[in-house]
Design brief:
- This protein has about 375 residues and is of the alpha/beta class.
- The strands form three sheets. Strands 1, 2, 3, 4, 5, 6, 7, 8, 9, 10, 13 and 15 form a twelve-stranded mixed beta sheet that branches. Strands 11-12 form a two-stranded antiparallel ribbon. The protein has a two-stranded antiparallel sheet with strand order 14-16.
- A hairpin with a 1-residue loop joins β11 and β12.
- The longest helix has 17 residues.
- The mean pLDDT is about 90.
- The site of magnesium ion (MG) has 4 residues, from loops.
Length: about 375
């Protein structure tokens, strides 16, 4: 693959935020070029990408998606990655989870690969998490709570237990298997661009087309545009230069080194991606005392890359976007201990304008989950 060179990196204490890099070639070939490699774009060899993918788990959260679409997603995940499907689909008389199991089983048999599938509400999973003291993620019945973030955390824990080094997330309502494949390539190349073991790779879709009569290649979703604006405002208040560096505040498609993933605090449901950034800033920007000296020494890289494939997925309506995604995303910025008054005021004004809260109303606070490493440390205490 060939990717644009990184331009100006923004520093926030030990955190390095890289500007979006565009992928230029999905395949940069194997034959040494007769032309001198230019200084700018970087070429990343296939075997380097494969080497990382062998150490990477791809977590596929699913809740009631069409089986054909799910199967297409499976086809797009590179063979060397371990797939971990975390489902919260319907069980009972009409058992969607069973159908997902069968689809995965058949796929793995014909393609000669291994994968894991687990239901988020499996009582054994709830019990195991209670036993290792990670009960914040459980509901009153002792089962893992519903939500995409909750499924992702289960995926992170399984990746850790299985000894993987990296974890990437890909939604299962993606209609373009080629885009799925591209995300997994981006994750791998993102990891090669950092020398730190603490890395996050976040994907910016080149286009997110709207299909209403005719196809229109829309660049920005409304939610991401607004969340990016406030997170950038938050960062700008920490220095004297205004910035618009963050373009991926809601990036559902993203990956992390497990060394980093296990240290972050997560927020429930669809606010998870914004909270990951806020957690990095809170823990490693130096604005609060940095407790983890190892991370402070190496630094954390936030790498953003732009795809070539467009992103086409199931659309769930305006109400879902505002209530389930935008409000929670702004809430985690607002309630972060580092958020100062001007950003808070702007967020409140925005939420009132969108009629998410009434004038004078409080910005709701979300449920948070502690770093997954506490579960791992309690189940396998280090000697
Ligand atoms: N395991 C699990 N548990 N999976 C779930 C759950 C759950 O409770 N709820 C949803 N999912 C799965 C869906 O089946 C889908 O594969 C994926 O999580 C994303 O859910 P969607 O409902 O399709 O989210 P979206 O398309 O509105 O938003 C996506 O893109 C946003 C950026 O535009 C998500 O990835 C967001 O997190 C992201 O911010
Ligand atoms: Mg979706």
């Amino acid at each position: 693959m060939r990717i644009e060179s990184g331009k100006q990196i923004e520093h926030l204490g030990a955190v390095r935020i890289h500007p979006v890099r565009r992928v230029l070639e999905l395949d940069s070939g194997t034959i040494p070029s007769q032309f001198k490699e230019s200084v700018g774009p970087q070429r990343i060899e296939r075997d380097v990408i494969a080497g990382i993918q062998q150490k990477m788990a791809i977590v596929l959260p699913i809740k009631g998606e069409g089986l054909k679409v799910f199967e297409g997603v499976l086809c797009g995940v590179p063979h060397d990655c371990l797939m971990i499907v975390v489902s919260n689909s319907q069980r009972g008389e009409i058992d969607d989870f069973k159908k997902e199991q069968e689809t995965l089983n058949q796929f793995c048999t014909t393609t000669r690969r291994n994968a894991i599938i687990i239901h988020q509400k499996d009582p054994c999973l709830g019990q195991a998490l209670a036993d290792c003291g990670y009960s914040q993620i459980l509901d009153e019945k002792g089962l893992v709570r519903s939500g995409k973030a909750e499924g992702m955390i289960v995926g992170i824990l399984l990746s850790l237990v299985l000894g993987k080094e990296y974890v990437g997330f890909i939604d299962t309502d993606n209609y373009i298997p080629g885009a799925v494949w591209e995300y997994a390539q981006h994750y791998a190349i993102g990891f090669t661009l950092s020398e730190s073991p603490y890395v996050m790779v976040r994907i910016l879709w080149r286009y997110k087309p709207k299909i209403s009569g005719e196809l229109y290649f829309k660049k920005w979703g409304r939610v991401s545009e607004i969340t990016n604006r406030y997170i950038n405002h938050f960062i700008s208040t920490k220095g004297v230069f205004e910035t618009d560096i963050i373009k991926t505040a809601n990036a559902g498609e993203h990956a992390m080194s497990l060394q980093l993933a296990k240290k972050l605090t997560y927020a429930t449901s669809y606010s998870v991606e914004t909270q990951e950034l806020m957690s990095v800033f809170e823990q490693f920007s130096g604005m609060s005392p940095i407790l983890d000296k190892a991370v402070a020494g190496k630094g954390v890289d936030i790498i953003q890359t732009e795809t070539i494939n467009p992103h086409i997925h199931g659309e769930k309506g305006e109400e879902h976007l505002i209530q389930d995604m935008l409000m929670p995303s702004l809430s985690v910025i607002y309630h972060n201990p580092l958020c100062e008054d001007t950003t808070k005021e702007l967020i409140t004004k925005q939420l009132v304008e969108l009629e998410c809260i009434s004038p004078g109303g409080e910005v709701p606070q979300l449920k948070m989950f502690p770093p997954p490493e506490i579960a791992i440390l309690r189940s396998w205490p280090l000697s």
